[in-house]
Amino acid sequence: MTFRQFVINNVVRNKRIYGAYFLSSMFTVMIFFTFAMFAFHPALSLGKVNDYALFGMSVAGGIIYIFSFFFVLYSMGSFLQTRKKEFGLLSLHGMTTHQIRLMVFLENMLIGTLATAIGILTGLVFSKLILMIAEKVLVIEETLYFYIPFWAIVLTFVSFLFLFLVISFAITFVLRTKKLIELIKADQQPKKEPKASIWLAILALVLLSIGYSTALIARGLEVLVVMIPVIVIVMIGTYFLFTQLSVYLIHFIKKRKLIFWKKTNMILYSDLSFRMKDNARTFFMVAMISTVSFSAIGTLFGLQSYLINGARDINPYSFTYIESKHQTAEDLEHDLKMIDQMLEERGISASKVSAEFGYYEIENNQSVLITNQSTYNQFAQVLGAEKVELEANQVIGVRQSEAIIGDYSDEQINTTLKQLEMGENLDLVDVIDHYVITEMEIHFIVSDQDYENLPQPLDVYSHNVWSAEKADQKSLVEVGEELTETLNYTYAFQAFDYMFYMINKAYGPILFIGLFIGIVFFVSAGSFLYFRLFTDLDQDRVKFASIAKIGLSEKELNKVISRQTCILFFAPIIVALVHGAVALTALSHFFNYDLTIVASSVLGSFFVIQVIYYLIVRYLYLKQIKRAILI
User: Transmembrane region positions (predicted)?
Assistant: First the structure.
């Protein structure tokens, strides 16, 4: 057998450990190749997608590449830790340090080359599907046809081959060889009982409490001010959570005989404190990486929801035209006729409502819109919204639009009402959400009788809306685009479908890029957990085989391993989910916009994926342990 054949056989023999590393590397290569394929696509390079999107994809590719470097470096370090005994046996049979380093170098290059080649091939196989998805997400009118991305293949292959080459050299250079007896007995060395400081454990709770409470209390622009300090505090608290608090809690449980001596708890908790201490840095890293992934994707979907609902909140009608202060009556009449004519020419049937709204003086030379219930109900009927009924001296306040970033409450409505000349005589009977009238600021609805008795308004502006009936979105977008370009921009014209289209077109690349990067981070975090779990597999085989001989049943074995792997798998993920939930709640406070549904959907999806991943790994782990017991 040649040395190269020995290396290949060694990789095949260790496929259980190398499997997750290979698949994760392959997935990372595929994602990088996908971005490269977009960057070199003829349809995109000819200017059919804006330069910012292409720049974003280039930056995303760079982020993935840098992250891949540290991911591969960490993975190789984990593998070398598990192979000390193997290196000792090879040294015992005459292999020199130089040969061991060469073996590690060739193994890593073999896996890296295969992962790169298969990652590119997988990207090519799924390229058409990815391009079709990209057309929808990026809102590209032209078809992203399939092509053979020669330069993308070259860039990906050369980049990752260089990455694996550098890391392989670095790993072999720093590879240390201990005394032969230490290497052979590496997995038999007794471990000291892990210790934890109660003060550092308390500090972990204090830091996390301060970080969470600060993030949750902050409102509006305060969120930006406290963001960096909160991130630093929570990171330090998370580190002590895994290195100190978790170990301290396990020690606390072990001292409680009613818990520790119950059934198989002794087996579970005796080993768990060592596992938590050994894996503390890995858990910290997984928790932080997962938090970034959860928060980034949650933020992207939350921001998309905020922008779209904000656009709908600003303009719930198909078309809206509000008179400008500097506009003449002739210009207004001309533009309204043009809109009606264009809708008629395109065969778009639309319900139209026009009204003049008065703006009344309040403090600081500002004004507020007041309308009567009849006019409000005309607009409400077009939208199918609830109508209002008011008696004399009654008023309804309409909240400020959620599209405006800031911290505001219903108390501002009372304050504004009191600033009006006749405000003291009006009874505020209800406060409703901004929806019907095309006014973003606080405004009021009064009875028809009270409206007639209002003083002369400071300004009067014409509001005109059209609500399209049974029109296809493509026609509405085309008409909206043409009218937006034709009408004078000093006048407030808005076309909702066109606005919706432009938001998706501008935001699509950001969502597309962020989603891919977030998935790469999450997959890598899962791989780290897999590495750490299977690092101790050989020791666990011996341990559970010995325990089985003194009466541990198969049912009890399943229970112990399931609980142990569950704690190890979900401890960092649950921490990350809590971090992510707090981060997204802070984001909702910044925008003053409810992100509960978005946050629940994103975090829930990741949790379900983690459960599926756990069940698969648990099955594989149990299979390996049971095989050792049967032997």
Answer: 20-40, 52-74, 109-134, 146-175, 196-218, 224-253, 283-303, 506-531, 567-591, 597-617
Residues β-bridged to residue 398:
432, 443
* Cβ count near 15 (within 10 Å): 9
User: Cα–Cα distance between 183 and 185 in angstroms, integer?
Assistant: 5
Whole-prediction pTM = 0.76
Asked if 486 and 338 count as a contact pair (C-beta separation under 8 A), the reply is: yes
Residue 615 structure tokens: 């069940």
DSSP string, 207-251: HHHHHHHHHHH--TTHHHHHHHHHHHHHHHHHHHIIIIIHHHHHH
| pLDDT tens per residue across span 186-231 | 455 545 666 778 899 999 999 999 999 999 998 888 888 898 999 9
Please count the other Cβ atoms lying within 10 Å of the Cβ belonging to residue 52. 11
DSSP string, 392-433: TTEEEEEPPPTTS-S---THHHHHHHHHSTTGGG-EEEEEE-
In whole angstroms, give the CA distance from residue 522 to residue 532: 16
The pair of structure tokens assigned to 337 is 């006729």
d(CA 590, CA 592): 6
> What are the strands of the beta sheet with 443-446, ordered from one edge?
427-432, 394-398, 443-446, 367-372, 349-361, 459-469, 319-322, 492-495
Nearest to 440 by CA among 383, 407, 402, 395: 402
pLDDT, tens digit, 9 for 90 and up, residues 5-33: 877 887 777 776 677 678 778 887 888 88
**H/E segment holding residue 253:** helix 246-254
Q: Which long-range contacts does 537-543 make (Cβ < 8 Å, 24+ apart)? A: 537/16, 537/621, 537/624, 537/625, 538/82, 538/187, 539/187, 540/625, 541/624, 541/625, 541/628, 542/628, 543/271
The residues with which 466 forms a beta bridge, in sequence order, are 319, 352
Element containing residue 34 per DSSP (H, E) = helix 15-39
Question: Which DSSP string do the residues of 312-366 spell out, in sequence order?
Answer: HHH--SSEEEE--TT--HHHHHHHHHHHHHHHHHTT-EEEEEEEEEEEEE-STT-
d(CA 283, CA 272): 14
Nearby residues of 95 by Cβ (< 8 Å), 6 or more positions away: 103
- In angstroms, rounded to a whole number, what is the distance separating the alpha carbons of residues 443 and 145? 51
Contact 373, 443 (CB under 8 A): no
Convert the pLDDT of each residue in 89-115 to its tens digit: 777 777 777 787 888 888 888 888 998
Backbone angles phi, psi at 445, to 5 degrees: -120, 130
